[in-house]
Design a protein that fits this description.
The chain is α+β, with helices and mostly antiparallel strands. It is about 60% helix and about 10% strand. Helix 2 runs parallel beside helix 11, helix 10 packs parallel to helix 12 and helix 12 crosses helix 14.
Amino acid sequence: MANFYTDHPEIKFNLESSPLMNRIVELRENGFANEEKSDYAPADYADAIDNYNKVCELAGDIVSNVIAPNAEAVDAEGPHCENGRVRYASKTYENLEATVKAGLCGVTMPRRFGGLNFPVTAYTAINEMIAAGDAGFENIWSLQDCIETLYEFGDEDQRSRFVPRICAGETMSMDLTEPDAGSDLQRVMLKATYSEADKCWYLNGVKRFITNGDSDIHLVLARSEEGTKDGRGLSMFIYDKRDGGVDVRRIENKMGIHGSPTCELVYKNAKAELCGRRKFGLIKYVMALMNGARLGIAAQAVGISQASYDEALAYAKDRKQFNQAIINFPGVYEMLSNMKARLDAGRALLYQTARYVDIYKSLEDIERTRKLTDEEKAELKLYNKLASAGTPLTKGMNAEYSNINSYDSIQVHGGSGYMLEYACQRLYRDARITSIYEGTTQLQVVAALPHITTGTYTSMLDELEAAAVAPEFESLKARAKAMDDKFKAAIDYVKAAENNEFLDLCSRRLYEMAGNCVMAQLLIRDASANAELFGKSAKVYLNLAEAEVMKHSNFIMNLTAEQIADYKA
């Protein structure tokens, strides 16, 4: 029987291979001091890794034998709006039942609340597999990640009431955007009014483009400070569907991710409770929420890339033209090798970022119970910065790669790929949203730019360049180093202009250079550890990355501030 996890050993490699996993597990398990408090707590590092692998195998079985087989039916039927409520596609309920029965809920939450206490890295592995099976369903399932924000910023009473419900299988949503507030969330106007008589908050207004908008528990961004018009007047609220007051006005008719209901919501005196402190909704809590969501979309994009590659590879092996399988034609096998190289490189960046997040998040959690040592404080600061740099890079680059790979998958299929009978067209439609929601690629560039100019990415590259590799990959390492030098020279050239408009015009190219350079180094590292899995991809990706870096370098180094006017409408 097929199993997505065991059938794709690259996922297991990325889950286990990094030395950082030892530190992650140690922090997550509090030095294994919790062993006696729970029958499910691991006794040591090997036991923890074994737990992750067993759950990933269980998830892989569900993906291959439930979620993926249901995907076409879910895409065709989609959800429905009936009397102000959402009814999922019928096969979506089968997917939900399978994941809940398997215990794939509250994956990262502490065991005391019924969670698995898994690190983000293990959650990411499950997430990308579910996305490969059906990206629309993954949206519903992965929104359990919103509970991280409630756990982090809510009080203990809220944790005890809401976290166990998510661990038991209830669903979540984050209600942020409005008709006049998309990327610019400072414009949010959903009104939050406190009632002294009822000792609670009431929400009134409209939210739009809310993924899984009829969920059980919502995190809602609303304007709590009357008379304000910017982010300082916004707070975060928890809305419980059982209290009523929110109706689904309509479900958007989307290009892709049909299994996921994207809703317009109407709040009419909806009872809610404050999460965290007033006025911190946008400037602190939404930022945390969005960073988690962006890592989740990166995993979704990798899953779509994997499924696109799998579909293309299977078709190319089976389809015969001119008396031979089309996989033997250079025009086809080059596309396939490029798809696999982008997939492996993007996945390497995804898991590297997940590990950064794990370390700083675990240290923040420990800080709630005791003071950190000076060494731990320095560690938290470092990995927080690395996670902050890695998140926009992995979200943006993997979203773009999923679009390229799903496009190429259709191309490998030829005319058949344009027909609705083949899954590649669904993957193409699903991929398109990944570079738009939870912050467009252009916004990821904006988020990454400070790390470009202050040297976070160049420091990453310096560390990766210093690491030893197997002798057969030393020549690749030298080429990657030369590529890194072009990136660093481009940064120096742009900074020397001392012109912010010039910097902004070059920012997308600097961003892509950063991604190309970091992913090339990561993939060479992985190939050195497992040449059978990644040796070919490392060579192919370096060819792709060198061409991209050279292209962007030529553009930047030949551009002057005086030419900015040529790019304005």
